[in-house]
Specification:
Rossmann fold; seven-stranded mixed β-sheet; alpha/beta; 1264 residues; P-loop_NTPase; single chain; eight-stranded mixed β-sheet; 7 domains
Length: 1264
Amino acid sequence: MSQYNGVSLPTREPAQNPTEAPSMTSPPIPTSSDEDPPLLDDNLSLDPVSVVRTYDRYWIDRRSVQYTSGFKKEYDFALKKATRTNKVSSAIPLILRDMGPPPGSVFDPRVVWEKEKPAYLAKLKGEAAAALTPTGSTPAQRQPRTKTKKGSNKKATKAELIAQNSKRLEKKSHAKDSEKMENNNCLESLQNSTVETGVGKLQRMLKMLHITAAEFEAGGGAGEEEIFDILWALEKIPAFTQASEELALEKQRRKTEKKETKKNKEASSKSSSSKSKKSKSPVPPPALSENAEALKFLYESNDYKDSVKFARKLLQKRADIVNFQLTNMSDRLPPLSKYNRTFKLEEWQCQVLSAIDDKRSTIVSAPTSSGKTLLSTYTCANIDPSSTVLFVLPSEVLVWQVAATYYQFFEGNVTLCTDSIVFQDQGGKAQVYIGTPRALETALTKARGIAGQEMAGEREFMILDGGFSFAYLVLDEVHTLNGPEGDALQRIVRATNCPVLALSATIGNATQLREWFQLVRDEHLSIMGSFVIAGNRDEVLGVEHVARFINLQRYVVVKDATSSSTSLQKLHPVAAMTASRLSSTQDTSLISALSMTPGDLISLYHKMKEFPGLLCDEDSPDKFFFPQEGETSNKEKQISLPQTKLYENKLKELLIDFATSDPDNYENLRHSFDPPPLEKIDSLDISDELYGVVTELKEKKLLPAVAFQLSTFGAFHMFKTLLKSLEVAQNAKYPEFRNELRQKAKEKSQMRKVADGKAEKTNKKDGEDDAQAGFDEADMSLEDIFQPHPSFVLSPANSHLSLQEIKGIREAMEKAGEKLDENHALIRGLRRGIAIYTNEVGFACYRRQVQILSQRGKLAVVFSDEALAYGVNMPFRSCVFCGDMGPALTPLIAQQMQGRAGRRGMDVQGNIVYLGMEWDTIENLMLGQISNVTGSNPHYPLIALQRALAMSNDPDDANFVHGKSTTSSTFETALLQMAKAQNCVPTVSEENIVHMTNAPLAAFCGIEATPNYYDVSKEIIRQLEYVDADMQLTSDHNVLSMVWELSVEYPAESVNLAASLPSFYRHFVANQRRSSLNIGDQNAFMAAFLQIIDRVPCADESVSLQRYLKVEVEERTGKLIDESGKELFVDIHADISLLKAKVEAFSLPAEAEEEKLKLILGCLEVDVGDVGDVGVPLDSGVYELLRTKQQGFEADVSIARRNELKSRLFRFGEILRVFNNNIQQPHSKYRELAAYSNKCFTAVRYSLMDILTQLTNQDDECEI
């Protein structure tokens, strides 16, 4: 018996290896040896809960994320022998551990909020009191009465003992710090060193200032920027300020004493003959504090005092200190300074954190990299450990990143869910569910009831428990309500009845979005039966923040007119802001988006000075930042980053007035910032520019960078282009480098043989014996013969990948089924500091390695399509837009892409580079036009089936179907046990479905929507004969669970597949002449499937699918027709044609007539009455790829065609995967079809891997 949540579950250990198939009765369902195991048959006379189980297929091979963790021996009395069973565990925890941040580096917002919360609440309380207190009156404060303690000679108290012990430990730490500082004479090493005491910090700062000052005086190394940065940071240390004041007072006291002593001597000589008087005892000088003593010692034992004096004099000589800071120190302005990086919550962050404490729903609209991440982390960390947070993210890469961080933060209590993989810890209750919208919706709905190991009475780590009951809902990048999975995201929002934290980039209708969330929360409370009144209403807080923490510097790539060389030229944001836009009161969002760096500000000021009367003296940077008197005066002469944002607002106000009063002159000012003429370049034609641009980025220290190209093939082309350019450049400068490495490797190999007593044999047979024993002369595997020359590696010198690191990466990839040789293009790219990350189903382990290496600063350039656009938090300094991307580059995607540069807490600057783009396109991107979030339509025709399936799997519901004699008793028993253990049924309640089908966000925003959608959907599934009037299932449960899972994204394909299943069964199961082991029959199954779900019209001059299958032949060719194939094709065509006629005859309300069209396949112009007709000619591209097992595309296939076929192939595979996972369940008539779908899905995976292999395959240019 096993225990789960206090419920005893009967279990029986399988007799076979869990990664293999247990024995099965006929008919068997074979599978390939390298894929998931065969399925068990349900017709067995076993215990109520037996070893019956299924294995879901995912795009990631299940075994690639598992490992053998041990074995178990049992004695089988029936066989009279011992059996050994391997124990298989999930490797996901190990993967998350490796992907996570370094131990101890995870930022805990609870700590900083705990420190700042009292002051924030006191401030709110003070503001409230001030609002109630009459002006001029001050509430009386009662002074606390102090009590004097009796008996001063008592024993030391506990607190005093603790203080004494702390003092002792501090002295010990100080000695350790002092020793560390004395032995450290390198500035970079000191910057990265840590100290434990305040005196140690003081010594560290003084030594760094001393080193930089000495280097500056010597004419090399550090510049004035470094000296000023350290000096200002030093002067902000309270211990230094206090100690300096004490030493100054001591110096003044000594000077005074010296004068007094001299005066007394003179007085004593005059009065020596007079009567002596009793002299007064001298007053002892005040004792110096520990910090002052330490500073005094450091001054006396080193030249630190001279260095401080030198730095201060250097600062005084700088007359243009304002201009110098804005131009040369823009990435050092506090709080960006690496010497004084103190973190303090901003006002808007405190407001949100306070709302989270009150369990109040909050909608936050703020620019990328403004500090939203800590809010979501606090929400997850702040809930009760017994509760669970649902965290929804827009992309798989973001799921892995957040899960890796939280896995460390919450010590493993994390569940992740994507289209590629699902994982939950089998040990306990997850504190956070992290996933993408559609994958989470499917997993939580749990339409199949139970699956996988749950069918054997065990908790399944790849099948979630289900249900929408959570304590808090966190939505990151909520503006993706407009995105591809925005429909699922909206349904999750409505189904999850709990407070919500929604984080968004800057959007145009933030207030309207908050009001919609308020409506949703009010509906939640109404459904619960409460009255929506002020006392119990969840008042949704809306917070808008417009300032990005680090403003981005823009560059454009300019090509020299006389040569082919390129250069980066700064691009001022004012160049994109016309007078009409600037003076328009309706475009205030555009003005806010017109962010400027400190360098942009000083450049704009100097341009504005050229227009008489535009500026006054008070507008100068010197007067603005350093007023001569008053509370705002700045004695330190240091500018802060928040001050520059205030100055930016001031200049913007002047620009608005200028554009309104004198638009012509304003346009003259604007055009002075215009870039040179720019040309649009296709992404495949930027080869000549790419290498030069990346090289300049490296020279200007603007790497690491993420380079975006929305075309996947375009992104791969750029990756290969840069790799080839680096290799060619290395060959040109160091042509013998690879040969020299080989020669050294041979010499070392020979030396090892000599050392081992295995010198080269003259005897041929002895030489052959040595080769067999592993001493072959050519064996150089221990040497790094493929290492690139350091001059042609883009990552920093201290971040180059070693041979051992590369071996570790390759071993991890090989375990995941992604074996690559050591000289493969992807591996060569990593060694040169470049990589690629795209939305591909292959090379998942490689993508994870790219994430890990990027986080560790090992990569300089990462190419990507939209995969890295949304919310990914990696240390990229620059973002490069590569080539023309057409209409696919929407303002929202562009805004997200550029948000990857200059991440808060990871860098102190961010840059955007436009390469190969027209000025009109760049102008629109610079303006950062903000979109309104209206949401995708969350309603689909079969949404009511979600509720019907939930009822059918609920043992307490009258519509429970698994207790009937026609279904499996094994499945029923397992379902009953797991339903009690998981406490998640019904996964979708009536309240949930009513809420999900209420008016969508679009309707709230004024867009027309179908009313009473739940009733419409119920009528549709009733007329499809899926349910009766009471919503009880009237068709096969597995078929309907398949239909529902597919219908969310593919409604027409789902119902047509269901309608064609009798024909599939008749041709592939009932027909004994067919077998799933036969390649021809597998191809026939694929063709029939594609006939339904890949109905793309055949282009002229192309061979149609019908002709390719020989079900239709041109009369002039005289070729024979495949009669068996034609019979299958005609039957499938008849099925989908009849369903079309049936759907068109549905009786629905007039406003819901369009819903019928969503259930009808395309290319069905032929009437149903045309018996034997094979329909409109269909494209055969996908079928040809699979049938011929092409390893990629032919050379003459265009990029557009490749992108199209790859997308269709993935779509086919996804539908096959969902079909297989549902139809394989052990209580369905159609279960045996899973043998075919399993094989076909494997074929699709291999085909996509072949395409990816072709994309990455490239010869090594260094192999001369």
